[in-house]
Amino acid sequence: MLEFDSHVSPKQRREFSSFSNRNCRMETCFELSKCKYGFKVYVYPNTQDKMSSKYSEILTALRQSRYHTTNPEEACLFVPAIDTLDRDKLSAEYIQNMESKIQSLPYWNDGLNHIIFNLYPGTWPHYDETDLGFNTGKAMLAKASVSDMWFRPNFDISFPLFHKEHKFKGGEPGFLTENLVPPLRSYTLSFKGKRYLTGIGSETRNSLYHIHNDDDIVMLTTCKHGKSWKDMKDDRCERDNAEYEKYDYKILLHNSTFCLVPRGRRLGSYRFLEALQAACIPVFLSNNWVLPFSEVIDWNQAAIWGDERLLLQIPSIVRSIRHADLLALRQQTQFLWETYFSSIDKIVATTLEIIKDRIFPQSSHSKQVWNSLPGTLAVLPEYSATLADYPFYSSLPQTQEFTAVIYATSKTVMVSSPLYRLIKTVSKSPSVHQIIVLWHSDAPMPTDVRWPVPTNINVTFKTIATISMRFYPFEEIKTDAVLSLDEDVTPVTDEVDFAFHVWKHFEDRIVGYPARNHYWDESTSHWAYSSKWSNDYSMVLTGAAFYHRYYGYLYSHSLSASLIEMVNNLNNCEDILFNMLVSHFNKKPPIKIGLRRFYKEATASETEQISRWFDAEHFHQRHFCVHYFADSFGYMPLVRSSIRLDPILFKDPVSILRKKYRQMEGVS
Amino acid sequence: MRSSGGSKSRLRGPRMVNRYQHYYVLLFSIILLGILVTGALQFWPHHIDEEEYDFMLRSNIPVREVVIPTDAPVAEKSDQSCTFHSCFDVYHCGYNDDSRISIYIYPVTKYLDESGVPLTLGFSQEFSELLQTVADSVYYTSEPDRACLFLPPLDLLNQNNLRLKESAQILTSLQSWNHGTNHLLFNMLPGNMPDFNTALDVHRGKAVLAGGGFSTWSYRRTYDVAIPVFSPLAAATDLPEGDSQEERTWLLMSAQVGLHVEYIEDLMKARQNQPRFIILQQCAGIYNMTDRCTQEGNTALEYPQVLQESEFCLVIRTSRLGQLTLSDAMKAGCVPVIVADSFILPFSEVIDWKRAAIVVAEDNLSTVNEVVRAISRDSLLQMRRQVRHLYASYFSSIRAITLTALQIINDRVFPYTARKYEEWNEPPSMIPVQNPLFLPIKPPQSTGFTAVILTYDRLESLFLIIQRVAQVPSLAKVLVVWNNQQKTPPPAAEWPKINKPLKVVQTRHNKLSNRFYPYDEIETEAILALDDDILMLTSDEVEFGYEVWREFPDRLVGFPSRVHLWDNSTHKWRYESEWTSAISMVLTGAAFHHKYYSYVYTNSLPGNIKTWVDDMINCEDIAMNFLIANLTGKASIKVAPRQKFKCPECPNLAMISADQKAHMVERSECVNRFVEIYGTMPLQSVEFRADPVLYKTEVAQEIKLFKDLGAL
Asked: Pick from A6, A335, A586: which is nearest to B439 by CB?
């Protein structure tokens, strides 16, 4: 234990470095000053050594991260490119001479500001969790199966154990598709897996037969694994093996309310993530295990802790959980699975966020953010310290005003220009706070136009250099609500007001008029884009739509540079990317309102331009974009909707005096 | 503050001499030192006043005297490797219906040495309160055999007052000591001059320590409990809460005494050109804990009152990590800025400190003003609110601290009934709406819905509606709720033949709430509640309604709508069925809802809403709208144009009859009554409805999925 003289200067005390690495903490084994350029992660170049596909994916995810840097001088965190995942000497993936390889890393410096990833420490027979076969020095360990005995709190990271087949990106969805009531499945509790007969950890699974009842509690173990199981078998093996064959694992997984997650040789087991994905509430039986990411994840909201010492109590404990709690626990498994665990890149991103939160406590995520939808990866804390500034945490209308942001590409502005009329229309809305025109044109900004707006409304021009900048959350935008408009759309003021009304009740979605769809094109095996009339849609274009200012921030700060660059080079697809981004985080479709779609045919002749919407090349690009973006997200994030929201009494044969949004009756 | 170097040399002297001979001299110095070091008068020993101890009187045992021989065994050193799973004995905590731990308090005992001299100073006021709290709590048990935890009758709160070896001997002498297993020790001021360890130095084996001032090295996760250092001064001082929005004179204040000179230098650096940063120190002359002075001024400012004048208050480590200033600042609604590397914040196992305090690394103290200035006014106000809540709930008294520590241990022993994050962190009135169906999943269309039809005796209309609803593609099953106890339902042969399952349940009482009972026969999530006379809905309309429900499975989705309005003349809510352009309710004569809401309606409607509805034979639909809006914070959804269930041509409904007026009055009464019961108006008014995407668009009719949406 640390002892120090209170008369020693605090500075000396902090520099006092006789801590063993066993006791590392951020204060003693991590140099915060290296993070003065922000949270930058450096990955060493790959070496000649063999590398497992999973470690290679971890490195890829790190290199694609927005925190990645290629410059070691500005790095805050270093990641060796030598595969440390499997440190079981008996494993084929074990890398020899790790000590010298690690020591020869140019910035190793006894592991300072380094992180080592590991899934399998130690080997038969003791499976010593501290045995990585090399000295990790002051490096942080992101390690599976850690125990309370060895875990260095707020320094190490308890890492999830995942299969070799675990997806790199996108990830498989959770199995839960409906919230049945009562929330009970055919089996109350189940487990199916190996048991080890003797040696470390074997007692836990060897005891499970005590609670097996072959009815609603099904505990299946097999001794049949390894070469010499017959020599070691106990008198239950034959019976257990027979029972084991009676049940199918997949069927149990889908039909159990709870899934037991008992320790194996090591504390963590694959069962954990399998159960989580299957919305089968995990019941841990692995004393002293530090649960994955438990520094930030409140597992009590998604799982049940059992105690190996009290195995016989487990049945009554799981039966005592109230139905309302079951419903919540089960939904939480799905949220956690899909947000933090379902793919390697999410696991890596989560790890980085945990470390970043430690280094920059002033802009870190609260427990609330970590444990409720949409989760930490959707919440960039630099945006605001106030949760109410994000679109996710309130269902009640909060905003009273909006900012209209008009994207303009024309050469000039005259009184007859659509832009002039659009500004006039928008300014009539009682809720408009101000109007910003984003000038994306070679022509100079108009300076001497007198805008037909009330005196209290400000019309500002800003030049932007790229199409993506239309979503940029400029300082001038003081409201959460942004009305995004193309300069040539022709809404009536009631349409603006109605859209704003709807948006206030769906702050987390894009709410607007022009809807589009995506579909899977069998002939090309590609995702494709559609602007045809159809009974459903998955995108609402940002030519006439409301969105939350925060999504503009997410677009500008969370997307990979290559995606933004592609959009800017094409000068197209920014709206598609924006829709995918929003649906990726809120898992919901946008909302189409009203009849109109604001096709540009009406304006094409007026501006004497060939509208880009009819440009075949333009359209072709959009097919390409949909597919390319989906590929880059690792899955298709768009969600379809088959409903549209209209004003109450819309087009109903009743007196127009009863209707609130009367102008909408006339347009079509 | 006197220079600590001086105190140190003064102490070293007597320590060299035989401790026993000089015990009282030493004790006095230690106490004096304790006052100087902690900067507060606290934990003064006082004599046991037997009248105060209910728990003793209850057990009817007089204060025992026990002699501890000089060579009595000493408890083993604290086992630093202990975790909950490795050292805590769960077998005696057992599974019980309340999922509650039990705690036994040893009889109050006077421990004497062989010559009859007391080995302890007796109980401090604080320890007495602590014992009383435990004795009065739900956790208390008078039977050691049934106890999960044991509380020794030894006041260890302030290590300054302790004889280390003798205390450890007393611990081993306890009847059930067993290496300290499941013994709970409370300590607020650990360590001694000059080293100030961060956990109680008394050898204590496997005992669980509820300690103030743990560092990340001395704290055993899952095992110890980090508690605050109780501030008697803050507890005794009345610091009225000002306006929650108030702007305070100072942005940042340091009002601690006894800071190391290096910290003071850093503070001076941080204060440069920061007019809203003030540093207060002890006033010249005799140290008085309730006075503070600026460096320049000599006017004494009242402490802790002065903390109320700053938005943020610095809490910097001194010899110990746990600081009274933390409690003082919190009481004053001043957001703590904690500068104490490796400090385990009090109750941080359950409290989310990010919402109530700012932690700054000691190395960054000289730039603390930048950190503080970067915090928005909104965040500050939220943090202040949180600080007040945390102080009142967990810091304000010995009682609060003790019960919180016990609750944390209880949560470890029974994790499946543990208090949730919100319960620990949100002020009770602020617990946010937790939508019971919060996961955004769209139920598969293939599951379909169950039409639940409430009927009494309108057979003809019932049969007709069964046939109609059977036409809807996504119908999974029809469940008829036969609410007539006088008549039995007709034999199976007489029921219409449909190609979907048809079940009839017979109720025991003719109650309206039967329509919202979560019958086992309902195997789908989606329920379409239907009156037996709702004949006008088209198949497309119902199918589209189901589609809308699938997109909003957490809401009530219906057809005709109603709205509530505030009547300024009567100061009451009014129920309105006029054709307005807003809606806040949908009628449940035909509406979709999740089966979970039937379960809630049946089992946990607040107040007497359920019986009120059954007695009135009215308003069950309003009750359902309230229930769902209250659980989700969201509005009901109206589908498509339909405004009436009855045909508009029907003459008796075209005019407003006296009956109908009475009906409206009754419905308004329901709304007002429910608002009273909920304590709030949960309904949300919205001005939109859900239509099919191609509704009224000029495209070929055959493209449209839902063509026949019927009339108004």
From this structure: A335
Q: Are strands A157-158 and A140-143 parallel, antiparallel or unpaired?
A: parallel
Q: Which whole number is the average pLDDT over A361-387?
A: 93
pLDDT digits (tens, 9 = 90+) for A191-208: 999 998 888 989 999 999
Whether residues B378 and A361 touch (CB distance < 8 A) is answered with no
Q: Do A309 and B638 touch (CB under 8 A)?
A: no
Beta strands (DSSP E) in A316-362 are none
B85:A148 CB<8 A: yes
Model confidence pLDDT, tens digit, residues B229-287: 999 999 999 998 888 888 999 999 999 988 999 999 999 999 999 999 999 988 887 77
Average pLDDT over residues A224-243: 87
- Which residues in B511-581 belong to E strands, given as ranges? 526-531, 557-558, 561-567, 572-576
Rounded to whole angstroms, the Cα distance separating B643 from B646 reads 9
- Return the SS3 of B600: helix
Nearby residues of B591 by Cβ (< 8 Å), 6 or more positions away: B528, B529, B556, B557, B558, B559, B621, B624
Q: What is the pLDDT of residue A19?
A: 61
Beta carbons within 10 angstroms of residue A470's beta carbon: 22
pLDDT-above-70 percentage for chain B: 89
CATH top-level class of A187-344: alpha beta
The one-letter amino acid at A346: K
* C-alpha distance from B484 to closest chain A C-alpha (Å): 27
Find, among B530, B459, B523, the residue nearest to B495 by Cα: B459
Other CB atoms within 10 Å distance of the CB of residue B285 = 10
Q: Which DSSP category does B420 fall into? A: P
pTM equals 0.92
Which residue in A267, A205, A259 sits closest to A237, CA to CA?
A205
* Half-sphere exposure for A509 (CA within 13 Å, toward CB): 27
The DSSP letter of residue A138 is T
Evaluate whether A483 touches A546 at the Cβ level (below 8 Å): yes
Mean local confidence (pLDDT), B577-606: 94
Domain ranges of chain A: 10-158, 187-344, 393-645
Contact B567, B574 (CB under 8 A): yes
Decide if A75 contacts A41 (C-beta within 8 A): yes
- Facing B579 at nearest CB: one of A372, A384, A654: A654
- Taking only the tens place, the pLDDT of each residue in B471-501 is 999 999 999 999 999 999 999 999 999 999 9
Q: Residue A397: closest CA among chain B residues belongs to which residue?
A: B684
CATH number for domain A393-645, candidates 1.10.510.40, 3.90.1150.10, 3.40.50.1360, 3.90.550.10: 3.90.550.10
Confidence of residue A614 (pLDDT cuts 50, 70, 90): low
pLDDT at A11: 81
Asked if the model's pLDDT at residue B470 lies above 90, the reply is yes
> Which of A230-244, A611-625, B545-559 reaches the highest mean pLDDT?
B545-559
* CA–CA distance, A386 with A574 (Å, rounded to integer): 28
Closest CB to B352: pick one of A366, A501, A533: A366
- Crossing angle, helix A561-570 and helix A616-633, to 10 degrees? 180
- Helices A549-558 and A574-586, axial angle in degrees (round to 10): 100
Q: What is the ipTM metric for this complex?
A: 0.94
Please state the domain extents for chain B. Answer: 64-226, 241-393, 449-690
CA distances from B434 to A432, B250, B383, B390 (A): 32, 38, 22, 21
Is CATH 3.90.550.10 the classification given to domain B449-690?
yes
Among B606, B614, B620, smallest CA distance to B452 is for: B620
**CATH code 3.20.20.70 for B241-393:** no
Q: Mind telling me how many Å the CA of B396 is from chain A's nearest CA?
A: 24
Bond prior to A374 in cis (omega within 30° of 0) = yes
